[in-house]
Amino acid sequence: MRTVRARILLAGLAVVAAACGGGGGGETVVASSGEALAAPLAYAYVGGEEVTYHFDGAVSMDASVEGSGGLAAGGDMGDIRMAAGIEGTLTVGTAEGEEPGTTVLTMSMDVDDLALDELTVAGEDMSAGDPSGFVDGFDFPQTEIVVDSQGNVLSMSVAGEEIPAAFAMGGGGLGPAGSGLDPAMFLNPAFPEGELTLGSEWVVEDTVPLPGMGDMTTRTVSSVTDTVTKGGHSLFRIDTTTSIGRIEVDLFEMMAELAALDPEAAELDGMDAFFPEGMEMRMSLEPGDIAGTTWFDATSGLVASASIDMPMDMALSMTVPGEGSANFDAAIRMQLDLTFVDRVTA
């Protein structure tokens, strides 16, 4: 039972992450102008290597919580302000994929520093203590993705559990407008095939059906905006902006549909195995324009650096019969920078 629940929870988290991710696998329209690039934009992974990156992230949140009955413990629980930072290393192991021209990327993350810069609840400072203990001894799950030379995601799994392609943005690139603060999402912005020029712009528009959410629409605009040469390497800047329509989520409906997709879901005795009968929980997500910048090293065929700035409004409402209700509203902003460190034969 625990395994099934873990699978459903993992898939549910992947769905929400994908909902806030970058361009999908829909139709791509390319417009080019200007001088042809000195080198093609394509990946050159070599099996049996380890590529390391340094990541530095920050998240801030302004939230309010209101409740009634047993879920409130006094009604209005006040405003919450939080700011935190995270820093560490992302290691990417490479292996040749089963299909020609594909690569298996196995990504693991080590956190070196976790800082809680601010945490106030109803005006009271709650930031005392060292938050680094939260990650001491915790093994972050490995992410494994299979990509082609253009950076398109062909399959994805987290902690050994396969994530359906639709949840990984329809098999599209998980690039600089990736999923929240997961550094793995920076490594393969998908490039269109064919010759690109300085000033080339490509637009990916997609509609992806997601369990419990209906159809999610995304529009990602990417463009080659600059080029420099450093140490004999040709670097190209790709700016990306992703717009996502408002997402309404019935969390119980989502989990029920995910359970139906799981081959071992028959072990579950309905959703009562998780929550009290009659409980309702709904969430809405309204991401702002997600801005990303990638510097791609066309000489080595790797991402040299990347950054993301992702604002999002979130609302969560919960009702438990006989217990009361609670509403949580938050304005969240996530930022992350990723920088290439080394490339060695494993």
Structural descriptors:
16-stranded antiparallel sheet; 2 helices; 346 residues; mainly beta; single chain; globular; disordered N terminus
Structural class by sheet pairing and helices: mainly beta
Question: Strand-and-helix sequence, N→C?
Answer: HEEEEEEEEEEEEHEEEE
What share of the residues lie within helices? Answer: under 10%
Number of strands: 16
The number of distinct helices, counting runs of at least 4 residues, comes to: 2
Explain this structure to me?
The chain has 346 residues and is mostly beta strands. It has 2 helices and 16 strands. A hairpin with an 8-residue loop joins strand 2 and strand 3. The longest helix is centred in the N-terminal third of the chain and has 18 residues.
Topology diagram in text:
Layout: H1 2-19, E1 27-31, E2 49-69, E3 78-96, E4 102-121, E5 124-125, E6 143-148, E7 153-158, E8 161-163, E9 201-210, E10 214-230, E11 233-244, E12 247-250, H2 251-261, E13 280-287, E14 290-297, E15 302-320, E16 324-345
Antiparallel strand pairs: 1-9, 2-3, 2-16, 3-4, 4-5, 4-6, 6-7, 7-8, 9-10, 10-11, 11-14, 12-13, 13-15, 14-15, 15-16
Helix pairs in contact: 1-2
